[in-house]
Amino acid sequence: MDNPVYTVTVMPLGASVAVDASTTLLHALDAAGIAIPSSCRNGTCRTCLCRLRDGAVAYTIDWPGLSPDERRDGDILPCVALARSDLVLDVPLARRAAP
User: Fold this and answer.
1) How many CB atoms lie within 10 A of CB 91?
2) Are 25 and 8 in contact (CB under 8 A)?
3) Is the whole-model pTM more than 0.90?
4) Spatial contact of 82 and 59, defined as CB atoms under 8 Å apart
5) Closest CA to 6 of 48, 58, 63, 64
6) pLDDT tens for each residue of 12-52
7) Kind and range of the H or E element at 31?
């Protein structure tokens, strides 16, 4: 079975990246030259916390460092999140990485 590929759009930067369903959002963004704040890369430090404006994600760990209220409000941790549809993320500090 092929691994689905989704489009992730990072706002307000307006950049879009193709992400396969088995790659974390943070890894895919890094590979595409989109830098977002990050640190631990394992779902505990919350440095990469951002808002999911549209779409659905799954997680590589059972309980990422999000409260039930944050999950309800649409907050996600891209370091351990996997796309399950096309996504729109609100990441105010996103930038294009220096070459």
Assistant:
1) 22
2) yes
3) yes
4) yes
5) 58
6) 999 999 999 999 999 999 999 999 999 988 888 899 999 99
7) helix 25-31
d(CA 78, CA 14): 17
Strand (E) positions, 1-99? 5-11, 15-20, 34-35, 50-54, 57-59, 75-76, 81-83, 87-90, 95-96
Structure tokens at 37: 């704040």
3-class SS at 17? strand
Place of tokens 């916390």: 49
Tokens linked to 30: 């890094």
Q: Where are the alpha helices (DSSP H) in 32-82?
A: 68-73
| Amino acid (1-letter code) at residue 31 | A
* Lookup: tokens for 92: 């105010």
